[in-house]
Structure formats: C-alpha cells, structure tokens
Amino acid sequence: MNHDSFFFLLFRYTYEVSPVFLLVEEAVIKKMIEFIGWEEGDGIFNPGGSVSNMYAMNLARYKFCPEIKEKGLSGLPRLVLFTSEECHYSMKKAASFLGIGTENVYFIKTDERGKMIPEELEKQGSAPFLVCATAGTTVLGAFDPLDKIAAICEKHGLWLHVDWGGGGRKILLGAVADSVAWNPHKMLLAGIQCCALLVKDNSGLLKKCYSAEAAYLFQQDKFYDVSYDTGDKSIQCSRRPDAFKFWLMWKALGTTGLEERVNRALALARYLVEEIKKREGFQLLLEPEYANVCFWYIPPSLRKMEDGPEFWQKLHHVAPIIKERMMKKGSMMLGYQPHQGKVNFFRQVVISPQVSREDMDFLLDEIELLAKDL
Predict the structure, then answer these.
(1) 123 in any annotated domain
(2) 99-103, 210-214, 310-314, 359-363: least confidently modelled range
(3) pTM of the predicted model, to two decimals?
(4) Cβ neighbours of residue 213 under 8 Å, at least 6 residues apart?
(5) Cβ contacts of residue 59 below 8 Å, gap of 6+?
(6) Which of 93, 114, 230, 243 has the greatest number of C-beta atoms within 10 Å?
(7) Where is the domain boundary, 198, 216, 240?
(8) Does the residue 248 lie in any domain?
(9) Does residue 342 sit in the same domain as residue 223?
C-alpha cells in the first residue's frame, strides 16, 4: 500500500488520528447548515441516505423518550411515525432495524403528483414521535408541502425530518425541519458515497444519543478541544472521509457552480419533456416537478387500440421488453416500474453534468428503434 492510499484510509473518530479530515467535515457541515438556512446546528456524514434516515428516526425517538438509550423498548408506549406513501423504502427498513416495527409506520396519502396531503396527516389518530417528509421523491420527484406539514408538527410537538436528495437553490427547509438528510452524491453528483444528516439542535443531542464514552478513545482531559472528537456522535467508529469529496467539489465549483450544475440538469429534463410531447407514441405520466421524467412508450401495434383494460395490460409488458433489448444490446440503461396502479413506465432522472441534448435525443431514438416491431 502506498502512502497516499493509507492517507485516505485513516480512521476518523478522534482529532489526534485524523485532524485534517475531521476539520474538513466540520467545515462542510457548517456550510451545509448555512446553505439550508439554519443559524446553527450539528451533523455527521453517513454511508448513504438510508443510514441518515435511520439516524434521524433514532434521534427523534431519543428526544421523545431519552430513557430508551439505557432501558430499551421494554415498558415504553407504542411508538409510531408518519411518512408519505411515496417515501423512500429506507423508512420501513429503519423502523424494522430499530425495533419500532413496520406496522407502526403510518403511510399518509399523497395527491396525484405524489405530494403528502397535510389534511390526511391531521386525521391520524395515533400519537407519533416523528413525521418524515420528502423533498424530491424517488419515483415522481415530488416535494411534500413542508410549510403545512411543519405547522402540524409544531402544533403537536413532533419532530420533522426531511429526506432531501439535495441540490439547487435554497429551498425553505431550514425554517421548518428538525433534521435533514442531504445526499450530495445524488443531484450534485458527488462521488458515491457522500451523505450527511444535519440536525437543527446544537445542544449536543447527537452525542447524547449515540455516545458510549469509550475511555480508551474519548478521554476528557486531552490537551485539545475534545469537541473535535466526533466519533462519539456516530454509530460507527471508523469512517471514511466522505466529506472531503464534497469539500473538494465545493471548492472547485463554488456554490454558484453547484447551482449551475443542477439548473443545467433541470433544463435538460425540461428539454426531454418537450421532445416527448412532440413524438408520436410517447406519453408523459405527468408534468415533472423536478428532474424525474416519467413516460410510456406506446408501440405502433397499440396506438389504434381503445383506452381500456386490454390496452393497459398489453402496455404493461412493453417497457420490460425494451429494457431487456437495450441491456442485451448495451446501448443504454433506463429504469422502469409500475406505480400506484399505473402500468410499467420509464423513469429518466437527469442529473449528470456530462449529458447533453443529443443524449436525450438518443434516448428517445433508441427506444423507438428497439420497439419498432412491437
């Protein structure tokens, strides 16, 4: 192993063994907190947005009943959480992993665009400890109405967590959320993995929740400021320096450069939408709110069929056939899925700064070519 490789494998739990990367992480966390509009806060980089969501769920539960850290689940009341039916599947996984149980995850109805309906949230009768909203859902790219959800959370004293892919101009997260999962490796296309949990509370809640006070690592009588020993506010001990990737990117591009990257992706998504509208056989699922472009391709043999059960049943099989052909040909990769009663459709999420209008044209041309005999 060369010295450069070893440099990046250094454990990151105390300042003394990894001073540079810990200071970089602190600087990046502060900048991220500033970006979303908080005056202060705390945070930690995690191996993926799913882990950040789990951190937030556990942190909200600890805030709701701190005794759980020592006494566990025994003797506690039934704990439930509310989230959108369009939420990321990691919320169910986190509930299972933390012993909350998937039956205690209440999925709130969404509207036709995939946004959580706040009025449905108010109707729920159980007493939750957490509401998880989504800013950019996985399939439709929908943004839950955060201000209305936040008002309900404030009224009932609930922790509001926002699962945010991240990217683009400031959106009003800071004023309403108790925690935010921000994943720069998504819309900003930082190198995987690069994800952080940001917490509005700056009283040391993260450390109180996760600290094990290992005396062989976290001595309180060190000669330096021990607040830099961030390992005791993480589930992990050894961690990769993921913040360093985002620090380098932010330094190289600047805030304006990052915003331009996202704006360009959104412009390309809009271009794809307009091209879909022009072409025979292509049909949008809905007008996109973000970079998620969802559409059907109706092959020649189905274009004269009446809109009915038989038509939709046949259309359901089209996307998988086209996907198989593109993969075997090696021409491109495009996802598809059914969703909320709708048959299989394609989903193109435009995020790469390297794609162009020509690439969007190729995508549509290739679908037509692969399906010309269907």
Answers:
(1) yes
(2) 210-214
(3) 0.90
(4) 232
(5) 159, 179, 199, 205, 206, 209
(6) 243
(7) 240
(8) no
(9) no
